[in-house]
Amino acid sequence: MRDEEKDPAPRPGPLRRVLGALSGLLAGSGALATAELASAAVRPESGPVVAVGGAAIDRTPAAVKDWAIRQFGTADKLVLQTGIVVVLAVLVAGLGVPAVRFRRAGAAGVLLFGLVGAVAATGRPDSTGLTDALPSLLGAVAGALLLYALAGRLQHRRDESGPTPGTTGAFDRRGFVLTAAATAAASAAAGTAGGYLNGASGKGAAASRAGVVLPRPGSPARPVPARAGLRIAGISPFVTENTDFYRVDTALVVPKVDASTWRLRVHGLGVRRPAVFTYDSLLRRELIERDITLTCVSNEVGGPYTGTARWLGVRLVDLLAECGVRPPSQGGPADQLVARSVDGMTLGTPVEDVLDGRDAMLALGMNGEPLPFAHGFPVRMVVPGLYGYVSACKWIEDLELTTFDAYDPYWVKRGWARRAPVKTQSRIDTPKPFARPKAGPVMVAGVAWAQHRGIDRVEVRIDDGPWQDARLAEEAGRDTWRQWSFPWQATKGGHTLTVRATDRTGAVQTARRTRTVPDGASGRHSVVVTVE
Predict the structure, then answer these.
(1) How confident is the model over 163-188, as pLDDT tens digits?
(2) How far is CA 443 from CA 216, 232, 438, 509, in A?
């Protein structure tokens, strides 16, 4: 027997290996495009990239999540999804090379990737069932068939009578080019159609938001004092525009919830009158309007994840009182209020804090308009004085009264503290780190916050000199940040500027540096400048 007959698929040369890798990439793109199209018929969150990304977020240690937010900011989700696609591309390209000789094994490898996506999709907290597996499985089948077909075109061709027409006697080049071109075109079409249909799936929600007319609040916010906002270049504005407001969450796809079908269920331990509320029923209630500063627990000392908005909503204390809920201090059996989002997120808030008289609310409006989708439309929670991960549930759909001993919400399971009041902090907004101002008068300015306690004093230190009082802007309320300024007579050379705040309880911002895990960063913000 001749050697060729013993080895029906000789080892591919360099060209066929390259084309094998290309085949893997084309098959992978076809798989993702098919899955994207299929997810439009199920739900956008069931797509494999989103599902695997969500599973990765769920299983990532808190310290790694914290690092990602520090490094990439609000682009962390884009970086994650891009990383998943890059890894997938490397893997399918790697499968394509051996598939030139072992077509079935290559196709089986693609099917295995699809199974991983299906398991990730059905294992997410917001999974709606086995149908979430369909996009990944259908995409895998399409990718496997495409790789099998493309690898077949690269198979070694033997014909003792001479080369097959259209080939060189090695493999079917013309057939491979046509199959590859058709695969690329079909993938582009399917991906485009899937993206369009997934985008169109939120049109009903967008229409419901566009149709919202926010009523006048029964308890309006008092006007922001004219002297609460300093006219200093570089300082953060007192009110943060919606487009500039920080967003830190785990949702790779922003939920698009139709307000007309939205429901909020209130139930659980000590709820004597369970209830279900609609969006319209909340709009018909007496609304309060308040200026409140929110802060993310992932905010490093001097970080950007804090902002102030004018919120419009329903008092949580009134809503819970109607349901017969009492705080623990009055004999209520529940000490934790668990909020659940439509994307499966769970946050736990101390019941005592919600009912202690602060302006905790179910917010429907933000800075004069219905909540933006990215910030929780149609309804989100806002609780002054607590970090967002224990209070600011977006896209909320369920409120359950329970105890801290009985249930650990999402972030607590991942090493964060159960209770997390906002720490007293301050930040230098101007001059920026490594700035090179001219010698002479330099205005140092920034913001300080200690929600629900208020800021009483801000001090600045130049190098190792004494602490000197900064000028405080007028206070708009104890639940908002406070601007400050310090006129500095700058001298030439390098200098370190440091700031600290004192809240209304008399507590001075600590110099002890801690990371954000488990209950928020602490320390004092400083910037280094060179005066010329």
Answers:
(1) 444 444 478 899 999 999 999 999 99
(2) 40, 8, 11, 22
